[in-house]
Amino acid sequence: MFNACSEMIVGSSPKRVSTLFLTQIDTLLNSFMKIAFIGQPEYFRFCYENELDLLAEVREFDLNFSMDSTDFIDLQTFDADINVFFRGEFVPIDVLSNLNGIKINLSSEVFPKYIDGRINFSLDSLNRYEHFVRAIKDKCFDYVFHYDKTSVEFIKEDNILLSGEFSFPVSTDIYKPVEGISEKWDFFFIGRSTNHREKFFGHLKHHYNFLHICHGMWGKPLVNYMNQSKILLNIHAENEISWEPRMQMLMATGKMVISEKLSYNEYLIAGQDYVEVLSPRDLHQKVKYYLDNDYERLRIAENGRKKVMGYLSTKDVFPQFFDDIINNRYNKCDFDGFSKFSFQARIVKLKSQKLLNNFFKVVSRLIAKHK
Prior knowledge:
The protein contains 14 helices and 13 strands. It has helices at 2-9, 14-31, 41-44, 73-78, 93-97, 123-136, 149-156, 195-207, 219-227, 246-251, 280-292, 294-311, 314-326, 340-369, and strands spanning 34-39, 57-62, 82-86, 102-107, 113-115, 118-120, 143-146, 164-165, 185-190, 210-213, 229-234, 256-260, 275-277. Helix 8 (195-207) packs parallel to helix 11 (280-292).
C-alpha cells in the first residue's frame, strides 16, 4: 500500500502530494478496525491491555451478571467490527442480535475434561458446564471457543461443536519483571479461598510471609505485588485437574510458579517452565528447597517467562487469531445436533455418580477412623 502511494506521489506538485497524503491517511483511518472486549476487567484485562492499539481501535466494556439490555447501549453505539466476549453467555440475546460485527465468545470456566481417557470433574465444574450450555445454546455467537482443549472432546459428546480451543494470551508489556522492587513475601496467590486451596496454604500461611489477594486487583498494581514475591502459586479451586489462564499471567512476571498438575496443553512443561506439586505435603517440601536454592528458582522462572513470551504474548496471539477469524479459518459454532433431553440425562448420571463416590469415600474414612 505504501509503495503504491510512493509511486503515485513521485513527480507530483507539493499541493498534489499533500492532497494525496491526506486522502491516504483518511482511507487508513476509515479502514481502521474496531475491536470491543466485553468482560470483567479484574479477570480478563490481562489478555489484551494496551497491546493491540496499533492493530485497531480497541475499547473495553464492562460485563457483570446483573446487567440488562439498556446497559449495553455504549457497546452497540461503538459498532465494533469484532466483539470479543468473556463469559458472553450472560449477555442478553437482543443485545447480540443488534450487533453488526463478528461475535466471539471465549469460555473460561473449568469444565469436565478427559485426562488419560477418563472423565475428570467435580460437582462444581459439572454445574458450571451445565449452566454454560443452558445459557449459550440459543445465543447468536458466530464463534465459541473454550480455553482448555481437554474439555472440547467432552463438550462434543453433547453434540455441541465449538469453533475450537483458544489459549488465553498475556499482555507482556504490562505483565513483566519490574526492576528495583524488593521481595517482601515468600509466596503470592490471587483467587478466592476454598477448602481445597487452604489445605495447601494453611502451613505456608503459618510459617512464611504469604500474600493472598482474593479479588479486585489487576494491571500494574497487581504486577507490582507479584514482583514483590519469591514464588507465585497456582492451586485449583477444587480437587480436579485444570489449566487456569492465571498460570501464564503469573509466569510472565519472571517469577517462578508452583502449580498443581495442569491439564494437557502444548506449551507449559512441568519441571522446566514451572514446578508441579501433587499434594500439600509435596508443596511444603518443594517450597523449602526452592526458597533455599535461588539459582534453581530463577532458572525455572526465566524458562517460564520465555515460554510465555514465545507462545502466549498478546501482541502475537490476537493479531493471528483475528486474521484467522476474518479469513474464515475457523468453523462457526454449531448447536444443531444438541438434544436437551440427552444432555440433561448425561448431567444427572454424572452428578449421581459423583455423589455416590463422595458418599463411599466418607464412609470409608469413618470406618478407618473407628478401627
